[in-house]
Write a structure and sequence with these properties.
The complex is a heterodimer of chains A (about 350) and B (about 500). Chain A is of the alpha/beta class and about 350 residues long. In chain A, about 40% of the residues lie in helices and about 15% in strands. Chain A has 3 domains: about 45 residues; about 160 residues, D-Maltodextrin-Binding Protein, domain 2 (3-Layer(aba) Sandwich), CATH 3.40.190; about 90 residues, D-Maltodextrin-Binding Protein, domain 2. In chain A, helix 4 crosses helix 10. About 10% of the residues of chain A have low confidence. Chain B has about 500 residues and is an all-alpha fold. Among the domains of chain B are: about 240 residues; about 80 residues. Chain B is about 80% helix and about 0% strand. Chain B has 13 helices and 2 strands; from the N terminus they run ααααααααββααααα. Classes of the chains: A alpha/beta (about 350), B mainly alpha (about 500).
Chain lengths: ~350, ~500
């Protein structure tokens, strides 16, 4: 009897190992097959929240072999001309897609009684600088509110000349739009009440309700970690909302214990509620860039030249004005690394 | 026709002696096997019933006996006719009363809960859009609508059974209302501080209203409408039993008089004639009164209730459309959803998309209201509302175009009102005015249809006034006439 039992026990152990082996094999097969069939679909929908669309492993070969996506813009030139620049000069204004809801980034103050209530924020400053350099007048901008999900279609359809809207540079998106060099560095970060026991993206999140925006990088990361079996947050504890700002509503109402979003946007939330703070280090690294139409090489080079100058003069002033209260006096972590690399 | 007093038999009494071939008796016999006829030893004791049957059988062989039986049966028929008429018409009259003073006002109250909630939600978003420049009027409007919703809920709570589904929904709404109000206040505070978080709160409050509270209010409204339809069905159903008994009683009276004529050659028996006249009056009154009441009530349903329902629905659609128009500007693209248009999946602004759906709904309801309006004073405000709505759609398109072009301030002016400038010529022609005109015109139409309803329903109800009492009194007179008439014939045998 004991021999049989031993045998069975032995088999059971091997059964577990065998199952694991099968699972591993399946995972490998899926990992190999899915990117091939999924890349175009994933990319062409142009979805994605505040960050990279889900499936970051599904990068195109070209983008991957070239290195990091933020190092693949065209080299700057202040004299580049072409169709895009000519059209803008002819119109005598630039149409720029921005956000109207991101406090300190792109935002309209409801209490501004001025007839021409202006948008304001870090992204808006950049937009004005671009208009000033290309058309000689910072006011020659037409701002258009573009929802997150409409950023890429708006560029493809030519509804806007460019999008300056906390948009992360990624290989997926580089198939559909052209990016400038990065103008800001950020990463996914946890936002929680100051009194909370949550201390970052780690096991202190276990058992807590965590709020993320639908289709966001944060949600993608949570789901990836769940699939990989190393999740701190179970799917039942994830609160999904239409917009990252809705997370602060849930947090204040006690319907969520923590928020995961881009550090830069988390900072914008923290600026609206002094009782919450960014906690722990960013657990990803992302760069914001100005997005333009894929064809607009001339415009990309001009914008890169504007950004090179802006990073030397103007960037810090804007950072101090809008972001230092919540992101900290030192801007070292937010400034894109130097020297900047280009694809050509 | 001969044996009627079956009820007078003690149910357990076993029949003895010759069993008459009367059905009720047969069933009695078979149903009581417990008490078998007494065994031998003398003749069994006879029951009162058996003796009565024997007497009847004996009486039926002589003319005075037959007359007595005929008189009793006729009187009974007339009385039965009168009492069934009184009972059935009393039921219908009280159902008509319920329509007029019970279920219709309750259905209206339920519609008011719904529209005051939707109204409060719209007022909240309008005030929010004005931001720091919120006027005392818009603030007061919101407060007033919330108060009205609370009052309507209190009325509904006292009128509905707390264990019923409506009662349950009312209780839930009573809990949700302060929660909603709290969210709106948070939105307002954050907006005043200049935080976009205010917009997020207002979207959350709107979500609670649309996805939770208004659905519950709709359930109450549907329940009350069902109750109203039930009351209508009760009030207008034909009193078949009374009519059948009336025909039977009249038939009996005519037969008795004919028999009388054949045997005595006398044409008129005053008593029987009086009984016939009374029964005829009751029958005519019954048929005419009920037909009148029925047509009045049906009229009140077709021209009142149906119009009221459609107008209420139209009003709610316009309130929702206005709320979504405001929220399109408040959310500024923060909330999008996927829809399939012509087979293609597209991302659209949630609120702008809902606005289109609400306006489609409004168009449909207004068209229905127009076809239901049966007179000029009812059709005029609806027609005006249609014109207002068309203007609204035009202005909305212009406001959307301005927003699409990135001129938010101009779009805002065209929605909540502002000044006409060289860059924004239509700034002083806001869609808000059109919405208000639609609302005002619908209100006029609603008041008109309410009057029509009350008038028609009151007419229907009044057609039944006095019928139950009148039927009872006339039936007693008729029965007395029948008895006296037969009695007069009987006296000839003494």
């Amino acid at each position: 009897m004991s021999a049989v039992r031993r045998l069975r026990a032995g088999l059971r152990g091997w059964g577990g190992v065998g199952a694991m082996a099968v699972l591993c094999a399946l995972t490998v097969i899926f990992a190999l097959v899915l990117p091939v069939s999924g890349t175009r679909g994933e990319g062409s929908t142009g979805t994605g929240g505040q960050g990279v669309a889900r499936g970051t492993q599904a990068r195109t070969d070209a983008c991957e072999t070239e290195g990091a996506p933020q190092d693949q813009s065209l080299s700057p030139s202040g004299s580049a001309t072409g169709d895009a620049i000519e059209r803008i000069r002819k119109n005598d204004f630039i149409t720029i897609g921005v956000d109207q809801n991101s406090y300190r980034w792109g935002y309209r103050d409801p209490n501004n009684t001025d007839e021409k209530a202006e948008l304001e924020g870090f992204d808006i400053d950049i937009a004005h600088r671009i208009a000033e350099k290309i058309l000689g007048d910072p006011k020659k901008v037409r701002f258009k509110a573009v929802p997150t999900i409409q950023r890429i279609p708006a560029l493809q359809d030519g509804k806007v000349d460019m999008v300056v809207r906390t948009m992360t540079i990624s290989c997926d998106r580089m198939e559909q739009v052209a990016f400038s060099q990065p103008y800001f560095e950020t990463g996914q970060q946890v936002l929680a009440p100051k009194s909370s026991t949550v201390k970052g993206y780690d096991k202190t999140l276990t058992g807590k309700k965590v709020c993320v925006a639908s289709g966001s990088t944060a949600l993608g990361r949570l789901e990836d970690d769940e699939d990989a079996g190393k999740a701190f947050v179970t799917p039942a504890d994830i609160v999904k909302v239409p917009n990252q700002l809705d997370c602060l509503v849930r947090l204040q109402l006690g319907e969520a214990d923590a928020v995961i979003t881009d550090g830069a946007l988390a900072a914008s939330q923290a600026a609206q509620d002094p009782t919450v703070e960014l906690t722990g280090e960013p657990f990803t690294t992302e760069y914001y860039g100005v997005a333009m139409n894929l064809e607009a090489d001339d415009l990309v080079r001009q914008v890169n030249q504007v950004l090179v100058d802006y990073l030397k003069d103007g960037w810090q002033t804007s950072y101090d004005k809008w972001l230092s209260p919540t992101l900290g006096k030192s801007s070292t972590n937010s400034r894109p690394p130097t020297p900047q690399k280009y694809s050509d | 026709m001969t044996y009627t007093p079956k009820g007078s038999a003690p149910p357990s009494a076993p029949p003895a002696g010759p069993v008459p071939a009367v059905p009720p008796q047969a069933t009695h016999a078979s149903r009581s096997p417990v008490a078998p006829p007494a065994p031998d030893g003398g003749p069994p004791r006879r029951t009162a019933f058996a003796e009565g049957v024997d007497q009847l059988r004996a009486a039926a062989t002589t003319e005075p006996g037959r007359l007595r039986i005929i008189g009793a049966v006729l009187a009974l028929l007339v009385v039965a006719f009168g009492s069934v008429t009184a009972w059935q018409m009393n039921d219908r009259a009280s159902a008509a009363d319920d329509v007029l003073h019970g279920s219709q006002p309750l259905s209206s109250a339920a519609a008011n809960i719904y529209s005051s909630l939707a109204d409060a939600n719209t007022a909240a978003s309008s005030g929010f859009l004005a931001g720091g420049q919120e006027t005392p009027e818009s603030r007061a409007k919101y407060e007033q609508e919330i108060e009205e919703a609370a009052e309507n809920l209190a009325t509904a709570a006292s009128a509905s059974d707390p264990d019923s589904e409506s009662g349950q929904r009312v209780r839930e709404l009573n809990e949700l209302l302060p929660e909603y109000k709290g969210l709106v206040e948070r939105a307002r505070v954050n907006n005043r501080l200049g935080y976009p978080l205010g917009g997020a709160y207002l979207r959350y409050a709107n979500d609670k209203m649309q996805q939770d509270m208004l659905l519950k209010a709709k359930e109450i409204y549907d329940n009350e409408n069902e109750r109203l339809r039930d009351d209508y069905a009760d009030a207008t159903s034909y009193p078949w039993a009374a009519i059948a008994l009336g025909v039977l009683a009249l038939g009996g009276l005519v037969w008795a008089q004919h028999r009388n004529y054949r045997r005595t050659n006398r044409v008129l028996n005053h008593g029987l004639v009086a009984a016939t006249a009374a029964s005829t009056i009751v029958l005519l009154w019954l048929v005419a009164g009920h037909t009148l009441a029925r047509s009045g009530l049906n009229d009140s349903y077709d021209n009142g209730v149906r119009s009221l329902t459609v107008l209420n629905d139209a009003r709610i659609a316009s309130l929702k459309a206005r709320g979504n128009e405001n929220l399109t500007l408040i959310s500024r693209g923060a909330q999008t959803e996927k829809v399939v248009i012509d087979g293609d999946e597209k991302d659209v602004d949630t609120f702008d998309h809902s606005f289109d759906a609400d306006m489609n709904d409004l168009t449909k309801q207004l068209a229905a209201a127009q076809s239901l309006a049966d007179d000029d004073s009812g059709a005029k405000p609806v027609k005006a509302a249609v014109a207002n709505m068309e203007e609204w759609l035009d202005r909305h398109e212009s406001a959307r175009a301005a927003d699409e072009l990135g001129d938010y301030q101009c779009a805002l002016s065209q929605v909540i009102g502002g000044r006409s400038t060289s860059e924004c010529e239509a700034g002083d022609k806001p869609t808000g005015d059109c919405f208000k005109n639609v609302d005002d015109n619908l209100d006029i139409a609603l008041q008109h249809e309410k009057r029509e309803f009350t008038q028609a329903a009151q007419g229907g109800r009044d057609a039944m006034t006095g019928l139950p009492v009148g039927a009872a009194v006339l039936a007693v007179l008729g029965a007395a006439g029948a008895v006296l008439g037969i009695g007069r014939r009987l006296s000839e045998y003494r």
